[in-house]
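Quick review question:
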C-alpha cells in the first residue's frame, strides 16, 4: 500500500524549524497508532535520520521510522500511513516536487521580517508554480514573550494570503534538550511545553484532515 497522507515541512533557509516540526508531526500521528516515516531530504546532514537513531537508542516510544531519500516518488511508494517530508533547503526541483505531491505544506518562520519575507516569497513562488495556496500553512516558530511581535507576525503572514497556525512555538531550551535526546518538542520533561507543542500539532492534524479527509 502506498502512503495515504503526506505532510511536508519546507523552506529555502535552514534553521527555521523544518526538522523540529517534522518530528512533532511524526510523533503526533505515531502516538495515534499511524505507521509513520520521516523522509529526510537533507542527505548531507540527515538530521532526522540521526534523530530517529537516537530515539531508538534511548528507547523512546512511539517508534518512528526515518530514511534519507533523493526521490519523492520512491518515498511515496513506501508502505506507511504517513510520510513526513523533511525538506531540503538548497534544491529547487526537489522542493517543488515535494510541494506538488504533499497533501499539506507546513512553512515554518520566525517572527522577524528577515525570516518572514523570504518564506512568503517562497510561498508565492510555489503558488506561481501551480501549488494551491490552500495546501500551505505557516507556523511561527522560535517566538519570544512579546505578544505584540507575535500578533504582528500573524498579521503579516495572513495579509500575504496564507493560513497561519494560531499556536506558535516558543524558543525554549527545553525543546532543544528534548530533541538532543531523540524526543519531539511534545515529549519534553515540561508539561507546559508539551501542551503548547501538542496544541500546535493538533492544528496541523486538523488542517490535514480538512484537506484530505484522512
Ligand atoms: N522552538 C524552538 N525552541 C528551541 N530550539 C528550537 C526551536 N525550533 C528549532 N530549534 C532548534 O533550532 C535549530 C534549527 O531547527 P531545525 O528544526 O533543525 O531547522 P531546519 O530543519 O529548518 O534547519 C535546531 O537546533 C533546533 O533544535
Ligand atoms: Mg533540518
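Suggested answer, residue by residue:
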Amino acid at each position: 500500500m502506498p502512503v495515504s497522507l503526506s505532510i511536508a515541512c519546507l523552506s529555502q533557509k535552514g534553521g527555521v524549524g523544518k526538522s523540529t516540526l517534522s518530528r512533532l508531526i511524526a510523533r503526533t500521528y505515531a502516538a495515534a497508532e499511524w505507521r509513520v516515516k520521516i523522509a529526510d531530504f537533507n542527505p548531507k546532514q540527515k538530521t532526522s535520520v540521526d534523530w530517529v537513531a537516537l530515539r531508538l537508542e534511548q528507547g523512546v516510544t512511539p517508534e518512528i521510522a526515518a530514511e534519507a531519500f533523493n526521490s519523492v516518488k520512491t518515498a511515496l511508494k513506501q508502505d506507511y500511513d504517513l510520510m513526513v517530508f523533511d525538506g531540503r533547503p538548497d534544491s529547487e526541483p526537489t522542493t517543488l516536487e515535494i510541494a506538488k505531491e504533499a497533501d499539506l505544506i507546513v512553512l515554518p518562520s520566525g517572527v522577524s521580517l528577515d525570516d518572514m519575507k523570504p518564506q512568503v516569497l517562497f510561498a508565492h513562488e510555489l503558488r506561481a508554480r501551480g501549488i494551491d495556496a490552500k495546501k500551505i500553512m505557516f507556523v511561527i516558530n522560535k517566538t519570544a514573550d512579546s505578544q505584540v511581535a507575535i500578533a504582528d507576525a500573524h498579521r503579516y503572514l495572513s495579509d500575504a494570503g496564507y493560513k497561519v497556525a494560531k499556536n506558535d512555538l516558543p524558543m525554549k531550551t527545553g525543546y532543544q534538550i528534548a530533541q538532543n535526546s531523540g524526543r519531539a518538542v511534545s515529549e519534553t520533561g515540561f508539561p507546559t511545553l508539551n501542551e503548547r507543542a501538542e496544541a500546535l500539532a493538533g492544528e496541523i492534524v486538523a488542517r490535514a484532515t480538512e484537506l484530505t479527509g484522512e
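Why it works: The chain has eight helices and eight strands. The domain at 5-212 is CATH 3.40.50.300 (Rossmann fold).
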